[in-house]
Specification:
Length: about 290
């Protein structure tokens, strides 16, 4: 009894919080707060041009000013204010496009996996057609025809990301619908909608959450890439990719114009990926067993 008690006590002790959850969640929370509180914490108007102060270096370098902590761009605009407001633009595109993609993909995955038959065949062929077209080429074609705007980016990125959700949801629904408790629900007369909402959707919610956390940084990176090519967020709207794009001509003389927004973008992507990987390990039963 005395030998087993310490072991049992150790098992009951709460585990220490994982570092990836703390770091990733902290970075994500900081960026979200920065975007939400942008009007309050921004030191300057991000679009205000002060030409005498153009290309000011960061405050800690020679020639820098404490009024511009991260320096100014070629038009005399405060870089820190642009980064703060750019986080709002990047998060808006990432969240809304991922929400649209998740809504389409989860709906089609539930329909194809639960109903099967012609619905599964038609949706599967549509997925094959979209997969056959490189997404970058499709996005460039649509933006070139329709024009560049935040709404266009949200629609294009949302419509292009539904395949990830569709495949995962369809595969899990195909496995869940054959389980005994689903058959028992059907036997007592439970309708399809109630089975989907009460028995199937809660069981696949973990996978959906993981995909969302992994898709948001990918969408933001893709948006930054489109903006870098000149087909993303139209000027003068601040956005991290546009700031990197506009600073490329000053890499030797004003390196902070590219390095500062790129550092914020990399840090945000790192934080969300850390959080997404940890959530995947915690919500996936197989990975959770391996960790034990």
């Amino acid at each position: 009894m005395d030998e087993t008690w310490p072991t049992a006590r150790r098992r009951r002790m709460p585990s220490r919080p994982d570092v990836p959850i703390i770091v990733g969640g902290g970075i994500l929370l900081a960026v979200v707060l920065m975007a939400v509180l942008a009007p309050l914490i921004s030191p300057h108007d991000p679009l205000a041009q002060v030409l005498p102060d153009r290309l000011k270096p960061p405050a800690w370098l020679a020639g820098g000013s404490p009024n511009y902590l991260l320096g100014t761009d070629a038009d005399g605009r405060d870089l820190l204010s642009q980064i703060i407001w750019g986080s709002r633009t990047s998060l808006e595109i990432g969240i809304f496009s991922v929400a649209l993609g998740a809504a389409i993909g989860v709906s089609t995955g539930l329909l194809a996996g639960f109903r099967g038959g012609w619905a599964d065949v038609i949706i599967g062929r549509l997925a094959d057609i979209q997969q056959a077209i490189p997404f970058l080429v499709l996005a460039l074609a649509v933006i070139a025809v329709v024009g560049s705007s935040i709404l266009t980016l949200v629609l294009v990125l949302g419509a292009g990301s539904w395949l990830y959700y569709h495949r995962v949801v369809r595969g899990e629904v195909l496995a869940i619908r054959e389980r005994p408790y689903i058959e028992a629900a059907r036997a007592v007369g439970v309708g399809d909608w109630r089975i989907l909402s009460r028995h199937i959707l809660p069981n696949i919610a973990g996978s959906i959450v993981v995909i969302i956390t992994l898709q948001i940084p990918q969408v933001i990176l893709f948006t930054a890439g489109l903006t870098f090519l000149g087909l993303g967020v139209p000027p003068p709207t601040p956005e991290w990719g546009r700031l990197i794009f506009e600073g490329r001509d000053y890499l030797q003389s004003a390196w902070w114009l590219t390095l500062a927004p790129a550092a914020f973008l990399v840090l945000f992507v790192l934080g969300v990926n850390l959080l997404g990987d940890e959530l995947r390990d915690r919500l996936d039963p197989v990975r959770r067993q391996r960790r034990r």
